[in-house]
Amino acid sequence: MFLTITTTGTPESPATDLGFLLHKHPDNAQRFSTSHGTAHVFYPEATVERCTAALLLEVDPVALVRRGQGKGRGGAPDAALAQYVNDRPYAASSLMSVALSSVFKSALRGVCAALPERAAAPLPLRVEVPALPARGGVELVHKLFGPLGWSSVSAEPVVLDARFPEWGDSRYVRLVLEGELRLAHALRQLYVLLPVLDDAKHYWVAPDEVDKLLRAGDGWLAEHPEQKLITSRYLSRRRGLARQAMERLELVRLAEADGLDVEEIDNAVDEHSDTAEKPVPLAAQRRAAILTALGSAGVSRVLDLGCGQGQLVQELLKDARFTEVVGVDVSVRALTVAARRLRIDRMTERQSGRVALTQGSLAYTDKRLKGYDAAVLSEVIEHVDLPRLPALEYAVFGSARPRTVIVTTPNVEYNVRWETLPAGHVRHGDHRFEWSRAEFAAWAREVAERHGYGVEFGPVGPDDPKVGPPTQMAVFTLIATDPEHATNPATNRTAATQTGRTAPTTPTTQTAPKEATAA
After folding, report:
1. Please, which residues bridge with residue 157 across strands?
2. Where are the beta strands (DSSP E) in 120-168?
3. Where are the alpha helices (H) located in 259-364, listed in sequence order?
4. Would you call 68 helix, strand, or coil by DSSP?
5. Which pLDDT score is estimated for 3?
6. Per residue in 81-133, pLDDT tens?
7. Which of 69, 130, 239, 452 has its CA 20 to 30 A from that of 23?
C-alpha cells in the first residue's frame, strides 16, 4: 500500500518543514513494525521548493492470514482465497489507516514543538493514493472529500487490465487531493475515510471505535452532509455504535452552534439519580432462558445451530460450565461477523480452544455434529421452507442425536401485540412460517416420538394470558439411545403430511417492524 503527501514552499517557509510536522527527517528512510507487516517512511524529493513524504506499507501475507485464521479480514467473503491470490494487501484500506495513526501519531494530533505555528496553519498539500477501494465509485469519493475544503478532488478509476479495455474498470480508484489544509486535518480525514470507502475493516470494531471516530472527525464530521454514511461504514454497520456516535455528533453540532462546550448542554440527566429500569430485549430474555435450560440439563459441550452473528455463542463462553461451544451457520458472512464479535483472533490459546465456528447446512447430515451434549436451534426453524424441515429434523434428531435439544421459535398468536406489525404479517421477511402454540407443540411431540426424545415446553418473555408468550421454547431430552429408533423423514412423506397439517398461511415476503426485528 502506498500514499504520498507533497507540499511546496519558499526560502522563508521551506517545503522541508514537512519533515518537522511529520516528525520524520527527510534525510532518513525509516521502518516501523506493524501487526500485519512493515511501514516505511521516506522522501522521494526534499527541496526548499517541493517536498514529498511517502508511506509504504509492506503487508506480510503470512501474518495477515495467521492473525485472521478465518476471522476478520482473512475470513471475509471477498477474501476467501486470501492465502493464495489476493489483491487486497495492495490497496489502501483500514491497514493503511492503522499505519497512519501509528507512524504519524503526533502529526495526527497537530503537535509540533519545533514549528507550532506551521502545524496550526494551512499548507499547500497534494495527497496521492494510487490504489484505493471505493465501494460507491468515483461519485462517492467526491461526496466524501468534496465538502472538506479541498480545491481539487480527482478519482480516476483503475482499469482491470489495460490490454483488455472491454473488461471495464475495477472497483479501485487513483485518488489525488489538492488544496490548502492543516496537515493534521488532512491526515485525520484519510484515517477515517480510507476504511469508509473500502466499507470494511480488518479488525473487530469495539465500542472504543466511537471515541476514535469522534477524535479524528473533530472539526469536520459533525457538519458533513454524508455524516450518517461515514459513521455507519466506519463502525462496520454496527447500529448501536452508529446511533451512539450520531447522538454525540449532534451534541457537538448544537454546542458549536451555541458557542458552548458539550458538557454544558449534555447535563439534562443526573446519571446518579436515573434509576428507571430499562426493559430487557426479547433476544436477551431468549438467551437467558436457553442458558438456564442448558444449565438444568447439566451439559458442557454445546452446538449453536444457525448461530448467526454469534450472540448466543458469546453468552455461552462467559459461563465456565460450557467447556466447548461450536457455532454452525450456512452464511460465511455471518460467521465472519461472529468471529469479530468474539474477538477470536485476540483470544489466548486456552480461550480459543473452547470455541469453533463452522460453515455448514442443517439440511444435510454432518458427522462433525455428532457426540455433543446439547444442540440449540434458536429462531432457526421458521427460516426453513416447510418441505425442507424434515431434512433438518433428521440431521439434528436422527443423525447428530445430542442428549438435549433446545428449539425456540416465534409464537404467531402474540403478533397481535406488536403495535406496528400489520395484521397477517410475519415478524421478519425471511420467515417461511410462524406457528401457533398448538402447531408448535404438535410438531415437537411428533419429532420427539419419531426419534426417541421426551419434550417439555416453556414460555420466553411475558406470558400473555390470552395469546401466550412472544417466543415459545421446547426442550427435548433423549430417551431412546438406539439410533435405529430414528426415522429419516427424507425417505417418507413431507412434514406437512406427516403431521397432518398444512403450512401456515401467513405471508412470508413482508418486512418486520423495528420492534419485531429487534426481538
Report:
1. 173
2. 123-133, 152-159
3. 262-265, 282-297, 311-317, 332-342, 349-352
4. helix
5. 92
6. 445 555 555 677 778 888 888 888 889 888 888 888 888 899 999 999 998 88
7. 130
What is the average pLDDT across 418-445? 86
C-alpha cell at 120: 496550526
Closest-CA residue to 309 (of 286, 340, 283): 340
Asked whether the CA dihedral 183, 186, 192, 195 is positive or negative, the reply is negative
Q: What pLDDT is attached to residue 460?
A: 94
CA–CA distances in Å: residue 387 to residues 24, 58, 76, 490, 493: 66, 52, 32, 10, 9
Cβ-count burial 59-92 (b if 16+ within 10 Å, e if not)? bbeeebbebbebbbbbbbeebeebeeebebbebb
Task: For residue 513, give the 3-state DSSP assignment.
Answer: coil
Answer yes or no: is pLDDT of 260 > 80: no
pLDDT of residue 352: 87
Q: In whole angstroms, give the CA distance from residue 97 to residue 102.
A: 9
Distance between the two ends of the chain, CA-based, in angstroms? 43
The lowest-confidence range among 145-149, 347-351, 375-379 is 347-351
Q: Are strands 50-59 and 374-378 parallel, antiparallel or unpaired?
A: unpaired
Q: β-pairing, 404-410 with 355-359?
A: unpaired
Q: Is 371 exposed, middle or buried (0-12, 13-18, 19+ CB in 10 A)?
A: exposed
At 298 the pLDDT is 94
CA-CA distance, 317 to 356, in Å (whole number)?
Answer: 11
Q: Are 26 and 2 in contact (CB under 8 A)?
A: no
* Helix intervals (H) in 154-281: 183-198, 208-216, 227-234, 239-258, 262-265
pLDDT at 514 over 50: no
pLDDT in tens, 42-73: 999 999 999 999 999 888 766 666 555 434 43
Q: Which contiguous run of DSSP H or E holds residue 56?
A: strand 50-59
Contact yes or no for 190/2 (Cβ under 8 A): no
